[in-house]
Amino acid sequence: MGASFSLRYPHRVSAEFADAPALRLIRRRLDAGRLREFVYSPDGSEVVERMDSGQSAPVGVGLELGDEPGQLVARDPRAEDSLASIQLPPLRFGCEGTGGCCGLFHHIPVLPEERDALLATVAADWEGFVPLEELVHPAFEEGNDRTFNVAAADGCCAFVRPDGLCAPHVRGGLLAKPLVCRSFPCTVVVCGDEWHGSVRPECACMTRTALEGPEVQGDVESWLSFRASLLQVQEVPEALRLQGQKMISRSDYRGWLGRTVEALHGSDRPVTVLRSAARELGLGVAGQLDDGRPPQVWLARVVDWLVHAEDRLVEAYDSRSPYRLTVQWARKVAAEIAAEESPDRVGPSGDEVDDWSRRASVAAGFLLYGHGLLEARELGSAVLDLGHFLWLAREANGVQLAEEVDSRLESTTSWLFLWRAVGLPRREPPLSFSVNDEPCLGASGPLQPGP
To answer: Which of 284, 335, 354, 409 has the greatest number of C-beta atoms within 10 Å?
Structure first.
């Protein structure tokens, strides 16, 4: 797949696609019985609609989806990978089958053998307006036959039935679905001599089942099977950038990570835990994570990004798309919060906010354990942004719940999706950020200047 889109599904990208030149990606969308085709520039910033006549009509400027240059290193699988153990967090998660994930992402990639199996599974029941094979189409305008995308319909995957269920799954069972669907939202990353398995933060079921779902550690075999299917491996490097020229070793980072995830487990004050974690890293702005309001300029940048994103999504995404609905909801609530003159906005209280806080702590724990912070260019800035977005998610509950817009959505994970999967806010480093000059992490090793 083209490098600009690889972060969405890193486990589906083979080395040949990761190293290939950027390609123009194709999305198709069923609209009132008509199949429309959109072609995106390599960075996603420009999009045109290809008409039936063969001509192309500009749709306007698209939503830029270029990946932030994170710190995880991509490589091909190795034989010795299967010998390393998989460590799982002490957290809970289950799938409720709401179907939000079926329309949340920019595209759904499948491999040739998956395309053939998918079409064969649903062929007997297909009664659509367009030929079935046109719904699973070449992923790139250059016309290679090595990867395909699934068309969208009514804002979701074209194979989602009116009752919200997956047609291939109903017809052929779990294994009838492409691996990218079967494995979502799982992620596994190599960290030193072990693997870390976790759940991607954009899954709405993460917070809905955070307190009641099955323990992740109780199903190691499924994680081993998922690891065996990887076409590309994500690995934590030996040295990580904290901020600017400040570096931290992988060993020290792993120790910090374990302590922070353990502190989040069962906590009802996730932002406070992150503040302590920021102080352990020696971050000079740990005081910003005191459950207080982020800088106004940070909130303004978030609102500007969302306004820009909403304008760009109108033509290429159906009005019922969870992706589009998430952006519209976030823009509305963020604008209202940013416009408040008082920094002491009153949101939910009592048992309701305690329940939300415990669930948000689990979401933050999953993000950390899956090394989601390393998808940013600097660990320190990612810690600060995560704290700010958890604050924003809590305050947004006092304006409007995402679930009130669409039952498939969930407020906290919607913010995490916009931040980590789409790139909100724009990829500038956080404002007013500094790092103390003192060594941190004690005897396990101080920060060292980078190259």
So the answer is: 409
For 218, the token pair is 């109780």
Under 8 Å CB-to-CB from 75, ≥6 apart: which residues?
Answer: 15, 232, 233, 235
Amino acid at 16: E
pLDDT in tens, 264-277: 998 999 999 998 99
Rounded Cα distance, 431 and 428, in Å = 8
Backbone angles phi, psi at 130, to 5 degrees: -120, 155
Indicate whether this model's pTM tops 0.90.
no
Q: Which of 38-52, 128-142, 192-206, 338-352 has the highest mean pLDDT?
A: 192-206
Residues with Cβ within 8 Å of residue 393, at least 6 apart in sequence: 360, 411, 412, 414, 415, 416
Measured in Å, how far apart are the chain's first and last C-alpha atoms?
31
pLDDT on residue 190: 96
Residue 54 burial (C-beta neighbours within 10 Å; 0-12, 13-18, 19+): exposed
Mean pLDDT of 49-60: 71
In whole angstroms, how far apart are CA 259 and each of 265, 322, 369? 10, 35, 11
The DSSP H or E segment spanning 396 is: helix 379-396
100 neighbors 200 (Cβ within 8 angstroms): no
> Which residue carries 């480093």 as its tokens?
429
Cis amide prior to 201 (ω within 30 degrees): no
Tell me the backbone φ, ψ of residue 348, rounded to 5 degrees.
-60, 155
- Whether the per-residue pLDDT at 341 is higher than 80: the answer is no
DSSP H or E run through 235: strand 233-236
Flag whether pLDDT at 143 surpasses 80.
Answer: no
**CB neighbours of 350 closer than 8 A, spacing ≥ 6?**
none
**DSSP assignment, residue 215?**
B
Q: Residue for token digits 């106004």?
A: 296
DSSP result, 162-213: TTS-BHHHHHH-GGGS-HHHHHTTEEEEEETTEEEEEE-TT-THHHHTTTTS
Q: Sign of the C-alpha dihedral, residues 177, 180, 184, 188?
A: positive
> Which residues on adjacent β-strands are paired with residue 239?
249
Per-residue pLDDT band at 431 (split at 50, 70, 90): very low
Q: Which of 100, 123, 290, 115 is nearest to 206 (CA)?
A: 100
Residues 6 or more apart whose CB falls under 8 angstroms from that of 76 comprise: 15, 232, 233
pLDDT range class, residue 444, cuts 50, 70, 90:
very low
Q: What number is the average pLDDT over the span 297-301?
A: 90
Tell me, what's the pLDDT at 259? Answer: 96
